């Protein structure tokens, strides 16, 4: 078997955004891969608390997870095997900035998402998403970081405010990733990790821990925060519903998420099935609108 692990993005790759769990064909293919000795790696912008609900993957049990856009890698039980947490200075600067302007801010810790600024805004947003495993707790006391440091942050603000942040604190080199289109409040949503962090770093960390090389890994994704992983893996594939930058970074394009593209790729690479190709169907701008709501996960 040429490849040892499959690292897959979550929303719009493993399962269509807005659906409760992966489709049966994908679940069956992932389990078949694992039964044959391959390792399945979930790669996501979420932290471990956002993916530990066993029901949300439709019966799939990942072997490892690259979380927080590469800043933390965990095993199936949530044990950290590689991490790049935020520093105290990086965290305090984010809190000061968001408090000054009342912008929502949460930090992604090992046990939960803690909202340090504007809890009600964030909590209400998660309730509206109705996505398993996603919610935050009120961290108004701002003391959770006294136990350990978060691996990532999530903030909501107008895009021009991000420019203002970089003008003041650009020397920190924090990596801001926009996760959706501007909403009715004028806010965009951003995942924030240390400079240089992406899913490709997480994949490299995992391969090193497993005694493998990146050439042993297949990566599949659909959007901008998958680009580092797609460039790093020995073989990479972008979904037909993927964004232009993700397609450009991938070695090839496979079927749309609603065509069970991941399942077809597994059958091809691990079980000598037919080449996984997109059908050529045009799902149009409607899919792009859905993707903009949560394609970075």
Automatic annotation (TrEMBL):
Molecular functions per Gene Ontology = hydrolase activity
The secretion signal range is none
> Which UniProt keyword terms apply here?
Hydrolase
Q: What EC number(s) does its UniProt record assign?
A: 3.1.3.-
Q: Give the transmembrane ranges.
A: none
Q: Which InterPro entries match?
A: HAD-like_sf (IPR036412), HAD_sf (IPR023214)
EC top class, in one word? hydrolase
Which PANTHER family has this protein been placed in?
HAD SUPERFAMILY HYDROLASE-LIKE, TYPE 3, PHOSPHOSERINE PHOSPHATASE
Q: What is the official name of this protein in its record?
A: HAD family hydrolase
Origin species, per record, is: Faecalibacterium intestinale
